[in-house]
Amino acid sequence: MPIKKKNPSAKIKIGRPTKYNDDMLPKLIEYGKKGYTLTMMAVELGINKDTLYEWIKKDGPHYNEKFSDVFTTAMELSQAFMEKQGLENMANPKFNSGTFKFWMQRRFLKDWGDVPQININHNTSQELSDNERGVLNTIITNLNNNKNYDTE
Known about the structure:
Number of strands: 0
Radius of gyration: 24 Å
Largest sheet: none
Shape: flat
Structural class: mainly alpha
């Protein structure tokens, strides 16, 4: 009886199978329309939120472009839902605008986070040194790079 040789070019799957399936995509949209947080979406999908982060992280080994695109849309829908809730409840005397603002700033940092105020005192009759210019450019770059939205 001849011995069967394994195909050396066949890929061996390591780890457990992915829980992802395309049925999750319309559910994400539904959850976004209801204002769900990232954690709530993960729980409803039956996955750990770390798994969700892996699927949306572009340079990660488990990145899923289709899921990531739909998740981005779901988060925009979630923000729109929450903003609409705030708008509709502003006239309500029981509406706590401070709590609403706090909640929105934490959930949607990119659009709702406070813009840091920086005061730079410099004698305008002098040019900035190369070192001062470098420090200032670093500060500006870091501020611009930190305008990522928080998905929670």
